[in-house]
Amino acid sequence: MRFVLSCRAPQVEVATQILRALSMEGLTLHAKLAAEGIDTGFRTCGRLEVFGTMAGLEKGRLEAAHYVATTALRAEELTPAEALCLEPALNGGLVGAIYYPDETGCDPLRYVQGIAAAAVEAGVLIETGVELQALSRQGRRFLLKTSAGTRKPLLTVMATGIWSAHLLRMAGIHIPLEAGLGYSIDVANARIEPRTPVYLNEARTIVTNLGGRLRLVGLFVLGGRKGHRDSGSVRRLFEAASRGIQGADEWSSARVWSGLRPCTPDALPVIGSPPDMEDLTIATGHGMLGLQLAPVTARILADHVSGAPVTELIPLAVDRFRSWPQL
Ligand SMILES: Cc1cc2nc3c(=O)[nH]c(=O)nc-3n(C[C@H](O)[C@H](O)[C@H](O)COP(=O)(O)OP(=O)(O)OC[C@H]3O[C@@H](n4cnc5c(N)ncnc54)[C@H](O)[C@@H]3O)c2cc1C
Q1: What is the pLDDT of residue 5?
Q2: Which residues does ligand 1 sit against, CB inside 6 Å?
Q3: First and final CA of the chain: distance in angstroms?
């Protein structure tokens, strides 16, 4: 059984406000990590959202007005000529664009490597290639069966993305998660590279220059499994890019990656401990925002495990889906 990502309008508004507040703190913390010398590829790069239809542009204007009103960040509507002047790699055929000059980005791989290196330097022991196979309750503690033996930790933090649902079910904890499959394609042979990240609104596709490689990201398909590859989806992403970016009809892929976004029914992450299980902390369900929210999630987790009261945890509570049907 699949759940439907549909909340009523007031719930959507509340979820949007919570995510925006978390994202704004995430932005500050991403900048702080970079300022501390952790190489995550963090930069202010702006984002140019390009529209091929008036209906799309109208919707984009509303979103931009909401963004400006709630974040104090800037958004500027551009005519097609102004957009082409800012980003000469665009194709014609757009009806308008909105430029978000304060948008930031980082490189996901560099982020993970940078944070891991900083953690190791701080004395953390990281074991890679170890699979958690089962978990069960033994007295007041969890017993973890892993491919490297059995562990009985003082504290377990479960941050295993979409796989958290299955793993937690073994301990009787029910979190309805659904995979949102998406693709990330590194382009092999771009003759003309956009300088600014370009979001092709109607195609829900983004083209980002990561400095030395061009990345095409898109698609959100509910369901899917790890390592899924579908040549039709990859082709559709290239077609979408070629409607927006010059020369994209000649692109080929150097690397195709598909990933599973861990999505919750109310679009909010799940962070915290199940009732009466203080030795287990969960962080999952970040959907499309896991990288953006990574540092703020870490801050909330750190406060939570050190016993500080964390007001943010209330709407993110682990047991908020207890009345949901088991998937
Ligand atoms: C195409 C695409 C583009 C995206 N773009 C963005 C973006 O621009 N900005 C953004 O903020 N987010 C983006 N996301 C979303 C982001 O990638 C996710 O929200 C994020 O990866 C979720 O992080 P996570 O740590 O919860 O789960 P994951 O990243 O899925 O990590 C879970 C980890 O747990 C490990 N694991 C699973 N089971 C076990 C087990 N039994 N034992 C041991 N380890 C296990 C997995 O191997 C994996 O390493 C994108 C996602 C996709 C697919």
Answers
A1: 47
A2: 131-132, 159-161, 163, 167, 182-184, 217, 259, 261-262, 284, 286-292
A3: 6
Question: Locate tokens 């995979």: which residue?
Answer: 179
CB 160 within 8 A of CB 211: no
Alpha carbon nearest to ligand 1 atom 33, residue: 160
Q: Which of 210, 233, 260, 291 to mutate to test the pocket of ligand 1 (most atoms within 8 A of CB)?
A: 291
Take residue 104 and report the two structure tokens written for it. Answer: 């930031």
Atom 19 of ligand 1, nearest CA residue: 290
Q: 116 and 257 share a domain?
A: no
Asked if the structure places residue 41 within a domain, the reply is: no
Domain with 270, as residue range(s), is 1-34+108-177+264-327
Mean pLDDT of successive 10-residue stretches along the chain, which has 327 residues:
53 90 96 97 97 97 94 95 97 95 96 98 97 92 96 96 96 94 93 94 95 91 78 92 94 93 96 93 97 97 92 90 76
Note whether residue 288 is domain-resident: yes
With a CB cutoff of 8 Å and minimum separation 6, the contacts of 260 are: 161, 162, 179, 180, 181, 224, 225, 226
Query: In this structure, are 123 and 255 located in the same domain?
Result: no
Looking at the structure, tell me whether residues 191 and 253 fall in a common domain.
Answer: yes
Residues 239 and 184 in one domain: yes
pTM, whole model, 2 decimals?
Answer: 0.93
Tokens standing for 313?
């945890």
Q: Whose CA is nearest to atom 25 of ligand 1?
A: 161
Ligand 1 atom at minimal distance to the Cα of residue 284: 26
Test site for ligand 1: of 168, 207, 286, 296, most ligand atoms within 8 A of the Cβ: 286
CATH no. for residue 56? 3.30.9.10
Return the closest-CA partner of residue 277 out of 163, 133, 136. 136
Which residue, of 209, 230, 263, is where some domain finishes?
263
Closest Cα to atom 12, ligand 1: which residue? 289
Same domain? For 139 and 198 the reply is no
Residue 107 CA to ligand 1 center (angstroms) comes to 14
